[in-house]
Each structure stands twice: as C-alpha cells, then as structure tokens.
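INTERNAL TRANSFER SHEET
From: sequence group
To: structure group
Subject: Uridylate kinase

Please process the attached sequence and return the structure record in the designated field. Keep the field labels unchanged so the import script can parse them.
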Amino acid sequence: MAEPVYRRVVIKLSGEYLAGSQSFGIHQPTIDRIADDLIAAKKLGVEVAVVIGGGNIVRGVEVSSRGVSRPTGDTMGMLATVMNCLALEAAIERKGTPARTLSAFVMPEISELFTRTAAHKYLSDGRIVLLGGGTGNPFFTTDTTAVLRAAEIGAQAVLKATNVDGVYSADPKKDPSAKRFDRLTHSQAIAGDYKVMDATAFALARETSLPIIVFSIAEPGSIGAILRGTGHGTVVAG
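Return from structure group:
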C-alpha cells in the first residue's frame, strides 16, 4: 500500500452531507460511513483533524435573512457544528477509535476548549480531533475555519470533502459544459470565484502556503485514496 502523501491533515466535511437522504438533521448510516473512512485514514499513519459545517441543522445566513441578526444567526450555526462533532465523535468511539471534540467556545460541560496545545496533544496521542464552533466569530465560514485551524496546528493540507469530484468552472449539475480543473493556484481559484470554497479560505491558504484538495466524499474510501495520492480531486496550491 502506498505511503500517505500527508502526515497531518484537516478534513473539511459539509454539514449538509450528514443529513444523507434526509432534508434535515443527522442520518446515522451516513455518520457511521464517514466515521469508518476517518478511522481508515488514521490507520494509514495520518494525524486527522476534522472541521464540520452545520448546514444540516442551522445555516446562519438563512436564519439571519429571516430577521435574526447576522452575528446571532452565525452563532446558531456554529453551535450546530458542535452538535455534528459530538455525533461524529460518538460514532468514531463506538467503533473503538479514540476521538475528541474541541470547541471554539467555552463549554466545559460539553467539550474542551480548542487550543493549539490540546490539538497537538490529542493528535499525537492518536485521537481523531473534531474541531467545532467555527472560528468562534460571526462572518467566517467553516471553510475558513478549516484553513485557519490547519495553519494553527501545522497540518500539511486541507482536504475539502464535498459533493463533487473537484473544482469546476460552473456547477456541473446545472451546466453540462462546466470544465473540471485538475490543478489551480490559490490566486486562480480566487480570481475565478469558484463557489466550492469561499475567497477568504482560499486567500488564507495562499497566505499560509497550504494546499487544498477538493474531492467527492460520496465514494467510500475516498479520504484514504486522496491521502495515498491515488484519489480523484482538484489540487489548489501554489
């Protein structure tokens, strides 16, 4: 088996994906399948941290469009990410692998506060670390959180697990002529305004020289394939 390309990564998971075939909430078979993929990735010898969105429960932008202030809506969304982390942590631990949720918020009865020291310790101990609460600030997406946390903990790459197999020039589900890219620079991704990740995340990745690999989470084993360098995705780097 090929050696992993990266030894420490942050994996960004879509909250909406956790709903599975449902329109809302947590689909347990989907959570369990993702847990299996993360455990398999760790068994390759990779230190794995995970950032999850909250869109399967609350989308802050949508809440704020209905009358709640944007900071309050975003806070609700960040709390939803903690709920997703706790669900995934439970699934991972049920399968016999240690995991730990760290949150950007002080919630001692629920989860430990994120610090770089705590993240380094748990990753070095062999735990899968789940990073909840976004950045702890409104107006920032969980995409930006993933890049920020990766830079903070010295990860070698951000793996953006999404519902398409890379970055396209347009939504391939709506535009059959959309072009797929095998590789882009951060600057090209920003200039092209490709919606797979927000511009703030790409800009921070450029500033910190972090590669982002965009790939589809739909195929079981796709995380491990990306880590071994055999997966199908778009590399945004340089």
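Handover comment: Residues 8-236 form a domain with the Carbamate kinase fold (CATH 3.40.1160.10). The CA atoms of residues 186 and 202 lie 6 Å apart.
Transfer complete.
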